[in-house]
Amino acid sequence: MRKNNKILGIFWVIGYAFLTLTPILMMALGPKISNRPALLDLSAGLAFTGLSIMALQFILAGRIKILNRPFGTDLVYHFHRQIGIASFIMVFSHPILLFILDSRYIRLLNIFTSPIRAKAGLTALLLLVAVILTSEYRQKIKWSYKQWKIWHGIFSTVMIGLATVHILLAGNYINLPWKRALWAIYSAGFIGILIYTRIIYPLKLIRKSYIVKKVKTEPGDVISVTMEPDDHKGFNFSPGQFAWLTAWKTPFSDTEHPFSIASSAETKGLIEMSIKKFGDFTTKIGSLQPGERVFLDGPYGSFNLDRYSEAEKLVFIPGGIGVTPIMSMLRTMADREDKRPILLFYCNRVWETLTFREDIKELENRLNMTTIFTIEKPPKKWDGESGFLNRNILNKHSPTDWVATGTDVFLCGPTPMMNAVEKELLAVGYTDKQIHTERYALV
Description:
By secondary structure, the protein is an alpha/beta fold. The chain has three domains: 2-205, Four Helix Bundle (Hemerythrin (Met), subunit A), CATH 1.20.120; 209-300, Elongation Factor Tu (Ef-tu), domain 3, CATH 2.40.30.10; 305-438, Nucleotide-binding domain of ferredoxin-NADP reductase (FNR) module (Rossmann fold, 3-Layer(aba) Sandwich), CATH 3.40.50.80. Helices cover 47% and strands 16% of the residues. It contains twelve helices and twelve strands. Helix 2 (38-60) packs parallel to helix 7 and helix 4 (73-101) crosses helix 5 (116-136). The radius of gyration is 25 Å and the shape is elongated.
């Protein structure tokens, strides 16, 4: 499994690099203008590369399963975000270098007198600025995820279209028929991806809806929703993966949200998600009623037990609602009668809001598992671990031979908690390859 994923990952990296550099190859081929300044070529080259990366963002954000498989959806989204900033710097450098080359280019900023190609380019650049700023500061400006996603898609699509118009009208580097044809094919490919992700794929999801079977309130302001396929087989998943849920709307509405699957992978057909009340959508989720129709897009994520099936011993460290994918792993192991030794370090702020307390007690009877609860603010007469999970607690409950190549660690929770625990795990002696994490910051 790992070997196949590595080969597929190498293939995708090479393909991504090729598509990114294709416009540069187009510039290099064909007749050259001998007196063209090098700074002009550099300016155009950065713009072409940045635009290629921006166009490829549609693929990275398209939740294409075969693309996500080698890397994991969280890593792909993280790369999507970081490479987007890099491409912005490249594209923004294009006009700056032109102004340095010749101050007369500044006149193109006048939208009243500049030619259409300049207006298209300037508008595309302003939209790119809007895309980056709203993505980086969405929470600070208190823009809802739903609003952001809609306008993010609109800004990005129009931006790519206007940038393409700018290139075609400028024509300096695609002045041959075959270059124009190749660029048209190149652009059509990205439009095709957009049509697939925005129209064709949502149509597929509509045909495979789910029906709410049960809604249950859990400790810690968590709602567990059990769903079953509506006249179809549903999808198989590995324990620890997640799916995108759309409720009260259709898959065309851009209102889906990602949630980890909490149910056992051996319970075919049924999908259970345990959702903590954080925002408008999650607070409303408790109002779902049995019989209502919802839509699921999944599974996604490389944070899953089956990906590391060769592990001899397992350490699970959930924090808060990060327990959800861990519960899927534990329930699956119980259903499979998997007797590998398990250490479960369950971290939470207070005992009263600890989700799945009773479920974990029941699972202890079916698994070869030792549970260590670490509570930040424990109740009186607490005989468990208190404070934050640290190397002292890890050493106290972990046999020496666990910190070896046969052990895999699964860590999921709030980002600050995960960052701190990762440092403690490394200090104890675990390696990066042994530690597997799930990050929630997908958007």
